[in-house]
Amino acid sequence: MTDSKTTTKTVNVTxxxxxxxxxxxxxxxxxxxxxxxxxxxVAVRGSELNTFPNFxxxxxxxxxxxxxxxxxxxxxxxxxxxxxxxxxxxxxxMNSAALKANLQNLHQGGIIIAGTDGFDEKNLKLAGYxxxxxxxxxGSLSNYTVFPVPVQQLTREALKDSGLSSREVDRCxxxxxxxxxxxxxxxxxxxxxxMLKSKFSKKPLIADANIKAVTAGYYFxxxxxxxxxxxxxxIPPEKEHGTYRRVTGNEAAAIALAAAAKKSGLELFLGxxxxxxxxxxxQNLAKMKKWGAKTFQAEDxxxxxxxxxxAAFGGALAATNTSGPGLALKTExxxxxxxxxxxxxxxxxxRGGPSTGLPTKPEQSDLFxxxxxxxxxxPLPVVAASSPVDCFYTTYEAAxxxxxxMTPVICLTDGYLALSSEPWAVESPDNLAEIKPRIxxxxxxxDPPYLPYKRDENLVRSWAIPGTKGLEHRIxxxxxxxxxxxxxxxxxNHELMTKLRxxxxxxxxxxxxxxxxxxxxEKGDLLVLGWGSSYGAIKTAVDQAIEKGYSVAHAHLRYINxxxxxxxxxxxxxxxxxxxxxNNGQLVHIIRDTFLIxxxxxSKVKGLPFNxxxxxxxITDLIKEL
Amino acid sequence: xxxxNPTTTLTAKDFASNQEPKWCPGCGDHAVLQxxxxxxxxxxxxxxxxxxxxxxxxxxxxxxxxxxxGIHGIHGRALPMATGLKAARPxxxxxxxxxxxxxxxxxxxxxxxxxxxxPDLNVILFNNEIYGLTKGQYxxxxxxxxxxxxxxxxxxxxxFNPASLAIGSGGTFFARAFDKDxxxxxxxxxxxxxxxxxxxxxxxxxxxxxNNAAWDAFANADIKAENTIYLEQNKPLLFGKDQxxxxxxxxxxxxxxxxxxxxxxxxxxxxxxxxxxxxxxILARFADTDPDSEGALPRPIGxxxxxxxxxxEDALTEQVRDAQKNGAGTLADLLKGDNSxxxx
Lengths: 626, 344
Fold this sequence. Notes:
The structure holds two protein chains of two kinds. By secondary structure, chain A is of the alpha/beta class.
């Protein structure tokens, strides 16, 4: 294989700091694979990267229609990028529905590479264009730079001797477009060639055809004159030396559970039921048996958490993962874990609700359920991850809190974090926090009786694991007598136990890190307080606001229950607090309740994450009012 | 079953916790508890290696009375809790106490799925055909027509047949016993404990308060012999006061025959084979006939079905072992993954 860089004709190459690209087509067009390959290539070259797949919940929605459009957005750059980009610089539209569905998010003047075969009469009709109207021909795209490319026709020509059926040939057209994009962004295609050889090692004809399509796309860029006036682009990679891997949030969360088990010396048990968009955590851990991970695909969400409660009683690092509807089903069992005071990690990958809602779309609307969604007084720690990579650190921290404080912990992520990806500098085992289980030593016959609910200075009880001599004890959902754990209906005891359980969670604030500022000065006009996946958009917007000279800072919460001890002080250092959330203002309620201040909420409930433009506009408005 | 041997000889007393049972006087649960405590010393497993798991209901209080590890969980969920415990800790002897409401109504889904997976659990199903702890509502095993506080005009829900349900779910062990026949119950509990896989023991247990005498047709000394049939492996199906009645299979149809009348001998009778799922399925259906009805079949007592099949936790452990055949993964490998790349 010749080197793709050196054989290219010399055309003008423009350097850019970052670019946002959308690959969009029909859900059968292979856009996810195309986007993933492009992302791998730029990551391995050393670019900063953030990716976001956007696809319908149907596996195969009607072909050619708007509802069948599948997209993969990514932003890559020389300097860190924290979002997939508010607007795209480049859009690949494999058909007219893909164009129609995404045009509003393309920069004015942005590039459209249109697969003209997807703009025939049939496709235009399916996309809902009036008869006789073709956006590629009617001048409606005059504000953009449009490159019509007959992708299907060119792929067929390139593969005419491949020996494949026309259906198989047409399935290679995504690789043609990928090759063309590699050319346009001055990227090597060899990594994709290697991937295709290995992916289709048992189907050499298919492998060869896809490889031919990639190279044909690449050299089409080189040979055609249509790009002459824009030339090629180069985004010089500047990533620091080191070993990296690209992870999605769900991958990172799975790795974190297995890592926490290794670090704590416990065995990992995950009881789980498949649910979008949380399932990949189960799928990833099912592949981690080499690290001792035991996964149990339960018959339902309730059995998922209950099996984990059983495993936790047995001394495992137990976890369950789910999304909103599943968390609702698990709430009774969560109360049991609270009163049993056993360690349990619950990862809730939030999606649009209520009910089935928007299964494949992110939302941050389960915060109230995580905080309060159990009957009785049943407080538990709640933490939230802020980026795909942070899904590792926050899940790991959830496991540490669960084991060291003998409590169920809810770790909130969402469908955006779950599926989007970014490069992660491979972590060293030594950098991970120690996790010290409170395992009780065996009891000798002459020792005093074992007291399951005797507590240490943090009000944490010990973990008496079956198989340990002399610690036999029975616990469950009935209220128990302080210390002995025997069933008790005594009124004063119930009040005492209720307060002890709450105080135990509150005291976690003594052991967690203080809240830090992500950006901005310690005092100022406006603090943007975020939690969860809005991190990248807020970070980018606050960066831009500070550049404009605004007095703005950004703090992002990992710990929501309990809050870090200095949060009140931080909130008091600004004239105004802005809380953007993908919900109707749930953190706003909690902050108001806790600190008696009146923050400004900024809601977005569209099944889409925030983008930096929206947040910057809101910051600008507020600053002007101050 | 575990391989751990106690250093001293244990007795039933060693398995009694310091909590007094709070069941009603005359409740069948007392007798079952007694037999469980008496059978445990025979298993050669010390108390710290035994766990009792339960859901909610009268019988689900049982773990509190055992000097072992125990979880008194939430309604219907004992089986998944026990499955998780056993999967994480295959070395433990795990027992489940559950009732007809707990296992077959709110926990019905877990019941069928646990049986098909076959973790090595000993499941004691206390069937009293009534909800006791909530004071007398009909349960999924209550007979048609039973008048209760929630069925003042009589039950119209067709009841579950636990044996058919268990066998139909792919269960590997089903046995039936009585609270009142302690000695026999003890032998069945021992068999259940020795079976590797999910052993389901349905115990006909009397609730003297809300459904008294529900099992009298099978328990009262004067009529019991006519209405029950004690199963013994490789023995003909004989019953009746003098063992003069038998069951013959007429095709797939079980027929009661009188050995004192001419033309039939013990050699013509159905020979019990607890490993035969077809015969077990027919035996399970015996419970569909009312003992008072014409042509009623006697109620089978004992082991209806026992199949040797790999347990869930053994299969899982084997997969983990296989994945680790070239050594367990290190934390560093886990963090690095198999798709990392180096930026120079």
